[in-house]
Design goal:
Blueprint (H helix, E strand, L loop, with lengths): L7 E5 L25 H13 L7 E4 L3 H15 L7 E4 L2 H10 L12 E6 L3 E2 L5 E2 L6 H8 L2 E9 L19 E5 L1 E2 L4 E2 L9 E5 L6 H9 L9 E2 L5 E6 L2 E7 L1
Parallel strand pairs: 2-3, 2-4, 4-7, 7-13
Antiparallel strand pairs: 1-14, 5-6, 6-12, 8-11, 9-10, 13-14
Protein backbone atom coordinates (compact mmCIF):
# COMPACT_ATOMS: atom_id res chain seq x y z
CA UNK A 1 0.00 0.00 0.00
CA UNK A 2 1.41 3.42 -0.94
CA UNK A 3 1.46 5.65 2.12
CA UNK A 4 2.41 9.34 1.59
CA UNK A 5 4.43 11.00 4.34
CA UNK A 6 5.28 14.69 4.80
CA UNK A 7 8.74 16.05 3.92
CA UNK A 8 9.53 13.20 1.55
CA UNK A 9 9.19 12.58 -2.14
CA UNK A 10 7.36 9.34 -2.94
CA UNK A 11 7.22 7.54 -6.26
CA UNK A 12 5.15 4.50 -7.08
CA UNK A 13 5.16 1.82 -9.72
CA UNK A 14 1.95 0.17 -10.75
CA UNK A 15 1.00 -3.20 -9.24
CA UNK A 16 1.64 -4.92 -12.56
CA UNK A 17 5.15 -3.47 -12.82
CA UNK A 18 6.02 -4.99 -9.47
CA UNK A 19 4.52 -8.34 -10.31
CA UNK A 20 1.59 -7.96 -7.94
CA UNK A 21 -1.88 -8.69 -9.29
CA UNK A 22 -4.87 -6.80 -7.96
CA UNK A 23 -8.49 -7.04 -9.07
CA UNK A 24 -9.86 -4.39 -11.41
CA UNK A 25 -13.33 -3.57 -12.64
CA UNK A 26 -12.45 -4.98 -16.07
CA UNK A 27 -11.19 -8.28 -14.72
CA UNK A 28 -13.42 -11.35 -14.78
CA UNK A 29 -15.09 -11.90 -11.44
CA UNK A 30 -13.68 -15.42 -11.38
CA UNK A 31 -10.05 -14.14 -11.28
CA UNK A 32 -8.73 -13.75 -7.77
CA UNK A 33 -5.83 -11.46 -6.82
CA UNK A 34 -2.50 -13.02 -5.95
CA UNK A 35 -1.89 -12.86 -2.22
CA UNK A 36 1.79 -12.43 -1.51
CA UNK A 37 3.47 -13.60 1.67
CA UNK A 38 5.52 -11.27 3.83
CA UNK A 39 8.71 -12.92 2.56
CA UNK A 40 7.64 -12.38 -1.05
CA UNK A 41 7.06 -8.70 -0.31
CA UNK A 42 10.53 -8.50 1.22
CA UNK A 43 12.02 -10.05 -1.90
CA UNK A 44 10.26 -7.54 -4.15
CA UNK A 45 11.65 -4.64 -2.10
CA UNK A 46 15.13 -6.18 -2.08
CA UNK A 47 15.21 -6.66 -5.85
CA UNK A 48 14.11 -3.07 -6.34
CA UNK A 49 16.96 -1.88 -4.10
CA UNK A 50 19.55 -3.81 -6.08
CA UNK A 51 18.61 -1.69 -9.11
CA UNK A 52 20.67 1.04 -7.43
CA UNK A 53 23.81 -1.11 -7.58
CA UNK A 54 26.35 -0.31 -10.30
CA UNK A 55 29.54 -2.06 -11.35
CA UNK A 56 32.63 -0.87 -9.49
CA UNK A 57 30.78 -0.03 -6.28
CA UNK A 58 31.77 -0.77 -2.70
CA UNK A 59 28.61 -2.15 -1.11
CA UNK A 60 27.47 -2.46 2.47
CA UNK A 61 25.74 -5.83 2.73
CA UNK A 62 22.98 -5.84 5.31
CA UNK A 63 21.82 -8.55 7.66
CA UNK A 64 18.42 -10.12 8.17
CA UNK A 65 15.61 -11.83 6.30
CA UNK A 66 15.03 -8.90 3.92
CA UNK A 67 18.66 -8.02 3.26
CA UNK A 68 19.37 -11.68 2.51
CA UNK A 69 17.31 -11.38 -0.68
CA UNK A 70 19.36 -8.37 -1.79
CA UNK A 71 22.64 -10.20 -1.22
CA UNK A 72 21.31 -13.20 -3.15
CA UNK A 73 20.36 -10.93 -6.04
CA UNK A 74 23.76 -9.23 -6.12
CA UNK A 75 25.42 -12.64 -6.27
CA UNK A 76 23.09 -13.68 -9.07
CA UNK A 77 23.89 -10.57 -11.14
CA UNK A 78 27.61 -11.14 -10.65
CA UNK A 79 27.29 -14.71 -11.91
CA UNK A 80 25.34 -13.49 -14.92
CA UNK A 81 28.03 -10.95 -15.74
CA UNK A 82 25.62 -8.04 -15.31
CA UNK A 83 27.71 -6.60 -12.46
CA UNK A 84 31.50 -6.34 -12.32
CA UNK A 85 34.17 -5.28 -9.80
CA UNK A 86 31.82 -5.27 -6.82
CA UNK A 87 33.30 -5.25 -3.33
CA UNK A 88 31.05 -6.09 -0.40
CA UNK A 89 31.45 -5.16 3.25
CA UNK A 90 29.25 -7.48 5.35
CA UNK A 91 27.52 -6.32 8.52
CA UNK A 92 27.56 -9.70 10.29
CA UNK A 93 29.21 -13.10 10.29
CA UNK A 94 26.07 -14.58 8.77
CA UNK A 95 26.13 -12.15 5.84
CA UNK A 96 29.87 -12.73 5.47
CA UNK A 97 29.25 -16.46 5.04
CA UNK A 98 26.35 -15.87 2.64
CA UNK A 99 28.37 -13.50 0.45
CA UNK A 100 31.32 -15.89 0.30
CA UNK A 101 29.03 -18.72 -0.77
CA UNK A 102 27.74 -16.52 -3.62
CA UNK A 103 31.20 -15.52 -4.80
CA UNK A 104 30.89 -11.85 -3.79
CA UNK A 105 34.37 -10.35 -3.17
CA UNK A 106 34.62 -8.99 0.38
CA UNK A 107 36.64 -6.37 2.18
CA UNK A 108 36.37 -4.16 5.29
CA UNK A 109 36.12 -0.54 6.38
CA UNK A 110 39.86 -0.29 7.01
CA UNK A 111 40.47 -0.90 3.32
CA UNK A 112 37.37 0.95 2.09
CA UNK A 113 36.44 3.63 4.66
CA UNK A 114 33.82 5.11 2.30
CA UNK A 115 31.00 2.85 1.09
CA UNK A 116 29.16 3.79 -2.10
CA UNK A 117 25.86 2.12 -1.24
CA UNK A 118 24.46 0.08 1.63
CA UNK A 119 21.29 -2.00 1.43
CA UNK A 120 19.65 -3.29 4.59
CA UNK A 121 16.31 -3.96 6.23
CA UNK A 122 14.79 -2.31 9.29
CA UNK A 123 12.55 -3.28 12.16
CA UNK A 124 10.73 0.06 12.26
CA UNK A 125 10.56 3.05 9.92
CA UNK A 126 8.94 6.31 11.02
CA UNK A 127 7.48 9.03 8.72
CA UNK A 128 10.85 10.84 8.70
CA UNK A 129 12.79 7.73 7.63
CA UNK A 130 14.35 7.24 11.05
CA UNK A 131 14.85 3.57 11.83
CA UNK A 132 15.01 0.97 14.53
CA UNK A 133 17.39 -1.81 13.62
CA UNK A 134 19.22 -4.55 15.42
CA UNK A 135 16.60 -7.03 16.55
CA UNK A 136 18.77 -9.56 14.76
CA UNK A 137 21.68 -8.52 16.98
CA UNK A 138 23.90 -6.92 14.31
CA UNK A 139 23.25 -3.25 15.09
CA UNK A 140 26.86 -2.28 15.91
CA UNK A 141 28.38 -3.53 12.66
CA UNK A 142 25.37 -2.32 10.71
CA UNK A 143 25.75 1.19 12.07
CA UNK A 144 29.51 1.23 11.45
CA UNK A 145 29.03 0.32 7.79
CA UNK A 146 25.87 2.29 7.12
CA UNK A 147 27.17 5.48 8.69
CA UNK A 148 30.10 5.30 6.26
CA UNK A 149 28.05 5.11 3.07
CA UNK A 150 27.15 7.73 0.50
CA UNK A 151 23.68 6.24 -0.02
CA UNK A 152 21.74 4.02 2.37
CA UNK A 153 18.75 2.18 0.88
CA UNK A 154 16.40 0.55 3.38
CA UNK A 155 14.08 -2.26 2.29
CA UNK A 156 10.95 -3.23 4.22
CA UNK A 157 7.45 -4.54 3.84
CA UNK A 158 4.65 -2.22 4.91
CA UNK A 159 4.27 -3.90 8.32
CA UNK A 160 7.45 -2.09 9.42
CA UNK A 161 5.98 1.39 9.00
CA UNK A 162 5.22 3.05 12.35
CA UNK A 163 3.99 6.46 13.50
CA UNK A 164 6.93 6.80 15.87
CA UNK A 165 9.91 4.75 16.98
CA UNK A 166 9.95 3.15 20.37
CA UNK A 167 9.03 -0.52 20.60
CA UNK A 168 12.66 -1.52 21.16
CA UNK A 169 14.77 1.59 21.53
CA UNK A 170 14.90 4.64 23.79
CA UNK A 171 16.41 6.24 26.89
CA UNK A 172 16.70 3.93 29.86
CA UNK A 173 15.64 6.55 32.42
CA UNK A 174 12.24 7.16 30.77
CA UNK A 175 9.48 6.30 33.25
CA UNK A 176 7.48 4.62 30.49
CA UNK A 177 10.27 2.26 29.55
CA UNK A 178 10.71 -1.43 30.31
CA UNK A 179 14.20 -2.85 29.82
CA UNK A 180 14.76 -6.56 29.17
CA UNK A 181 17.98 -8.45 28.61
CA UNK A 182 17.65 -10.31 25.33
CA UNK A 183 17.86 -14.07 25.69
CA UNK A 184 18.05 -16.87 23.17
CA UNK A 185 16.39 -20.26 22.96
CA UNK A 186 14.50 -22.08 25.63
CA UNK A 187 17.45 -22.15 28.03
CA UNK A 188 17.12 -18.42 28.66
CA UNK A 189 20.84 -17.73 28.21
CA UNK A 190 21.72 -14.12 27.29
CA UNK A 191 21.96 -13.49 23.57
CA UNK A 192 25.50 -12.56 22.49
CA UNK A 193 26.27 -10.55 19.32
CA UNK A 194 29.07 -11.13 16.81
CA UNK A 195 31.12 -8.61 18.80
CA UNK A 196 30.53 -10.55 22.03
CA UNK A 197 28.17 -7.96 23.49
CA UNK A 198 24.81 -8.37 25.22
CA UNK A 199 21.63 -6.68 23.97
CA UNK A 200 19.09 -4.95 26.20
CA UNK A 201 15.72 -4.30 24.54
CA UNK A 202 13.82 -1.21 25.67
CA UNK A 203 10.03 -1.14 25.25
CA UNK A 204 8.08 2.13 25.28
CA UNK A 205 4.42 2.86 25.84
CA UNK A 206 4.57 6.27 24.13
CA UNK A 207 6.57 8.36 21.70
CA UNK A 208 10.22 8.66 22.73
CA UNK A 209 10.19 12.34 21.76
CA UNK A 210 13.47 13.94 20.71
CA UNK A 211 15.34 11.02 19.14
CA UNK A 212 18.71 12.77 19.06
CA UNK A 213 18.44 13.66 22.74
CA UNK A 214 17.44 10.08 23.52
CA UNK A 215 20.39 8.81 21.50
CA UNK A 216 22.84 11.00 23.39
CA UNK A 217 21.35 9.95 26.72
CA UNK A 218 21.63 6.24 25.95
CA UNK A 219 25.21 6.52 24.71
CA UNK A 220 26.22 8.27 27.95
CA UNK A 221 25.18 5.24 29.99
CA UNK A 222 28.13 3.26 31.32
CA UNK A 223 28.64 0.04 29.41
CA UNK A 224 26.52 0.97 26.39
CA UNK A 225 28.37 0.42 23.12
CA UNK A 226 25.61 1.39 20.66
CA UNK A 227 21.84 1.55 20.26
CA UNK A 228 19.45 0.55 17.50
CA UNK A 229 18.11 3.96 16.50
CA UNK A 230 19.40 4.94 13.07
CA UNK A 231 18.60 8.66 12.98
CA UNK A 232 18.85 10.68 9.75
CA UNK A 233 20.83 7.89 8.09
CA UNK A 234 18.51 6.40 5.47
CA UNK A 235 18.49 8.22 2.13
CA UNK A 236 15.86 5.98 0.52
CA UNK A 237 13.27 3.58 1.89
CA UNK A 238 11.64 1.03 -0.40
CA UNK A 239 8.33 -0.30 0.90
CA UNK A 240 6.65 -3.34 -0.62
CA UNK A 241 2.93 -3.67 0.04
CA UNK A 242 -0.13 -5.41 -1.27
CA UNK A 243 -0.66 -2.78 -3.99
CA UNK A 244 2.93 -2.38 -5.16
CA UNK A 245 6.17 -0.64 -4.29
CA UNK A 246 6.60 2.83 -2.81
CA UNK A 247 9.98 4.55 -2.91
CA UNK A 248 10.48 7.25 -0.29
CA UNK A 249 13.46 9.57 -0.77
CA UNK A 250 14.72 11.93 1.88
CA UNK A 251 14.83 15.52 0.75
Amino acid sequence: MAIPYPHFVGSEKSPMETGILVPSSSSPSSVSPVILTQDELKKIAAYKAVEYVESGMVLGLGTGSTAKHAVDRIGELLRQGKLHNIVGIPTSKKTHEQALSLGIPLSDLDTHPVVDLAIDGADEVDPFLNLVKGRGGSLLREKMVESSCRKFVVIVDESKLVKHLGEAAGPVEDSGCVAKLRTCGENGEPSVTDNRNYVVDLYFKKDIGDLKAASDEILRLAGVVEHGMFIDMATTVIVAGELGITVKNKL
